[in-house]
Design goal:
mainly alpha
Length: about 325
Amino acid sequence: MRIHYADVPMAWNDQSMPDKSSDAVALGAELVLSWALDVGLVADAREERRLASARLDVLAGGALPRGEAGDVALTARWAAFVCWVDDQIDRRGLGSVPGQLEAFTGQLRQVFAAEPGRSAVGLTHVAVLRGLWEQTAAGMSAGWRSRFTADYTDFLDACGQEAALRKSGVRLPLVDYVELRRRTITLLPMLDVLERTGHAALVEDPRVDTRLEDLRWAVADVAGWANDLASVADDEVAGQDNLVVILARQDGCSTAEARQRAGAMIEDRRAGFRATAAALRAESRLPQDRLEELRRYVNLVERFMSATLHWLAITGRFPARAGAPAAHGPPVPRS
């Protein structure tokens, strides 16, 4: 999954994000940490500091700037769980030990199974996911439940594929890497969560389905590629594929040049995102009530894109290692 937030270029700090009072931000961070301690995701002082540095309250508050406290808290808790799973898979090296990753992800899959397996009972990560799932799914449609389940289990599938590729030493071409990376970044499940907490359902209609799918993929692509810019050194040490490394290998250029090309890809993807959002807002073939729902959803996705970039730019979840080269970002993307 590889969520690395240190050294993401400050040029992507979206200045349109609403300011939050320091008291509100501090309270939000405290509530996230208190919950993580209660459910067992945080076990010691080091993990407390790590979670606090993630500033997930900033991400959730930016995505839901006028959201109810309960909705913002639920969003932040999901983000905390996403980061925790990331740590288990990447930082603890589950994919390097035969069978461990499959056992871990299999236990998570049981949460969505009709008959959860007994072996998963009592495991912290299973209990936390089940609690989040039950709270989030309450009152949601069968279609939403199916979509979230499909998106989350596809993320688990992609993590397994990524680990297998790393173990075998296979290096993907750019087009295949882009497809896999958008599945390992966990952005689609978070967008599903935001339908619930942001009270804006995804409109399903053949006239807009393709554009909405691209809108969602664009958020995942931008977040994944921005993470890759920040994690080049760590990924090389781990033998993990990375957008910058792939561009350097494919184009026969230096890492610095590849970073610039990755930045240009991000800028182009954001431009396409804005064009798609504008086209969806201009859609007129749906009934009026459905058009209003569509625009609410597009607004929600746009806020999440901005919140994610803002958060990536300011967070200290992964402090830079001593002696590590500073990251140099691409030209400022147009807002």
